[in-house]
Fold this protein.
Amino acid sequence: TDDPPFFHTTMEHEYARLAESFGWDEAVFRTIAQTSLDAAFCDPATKAKLKKKLESADD
């Protein structure tokens, strides 16, 4: 998905395929996003900013 024209797909399409194929719901994707953020190689301030953005997506 880092090159949509080459691979003929989008992140949205890939997420939809995962949801359909494995029965994943929003909670699963949120957990994946949180785990990715926890493991990200960025400074604590950036992680805090991204965590706040992720949490605000609940609203």
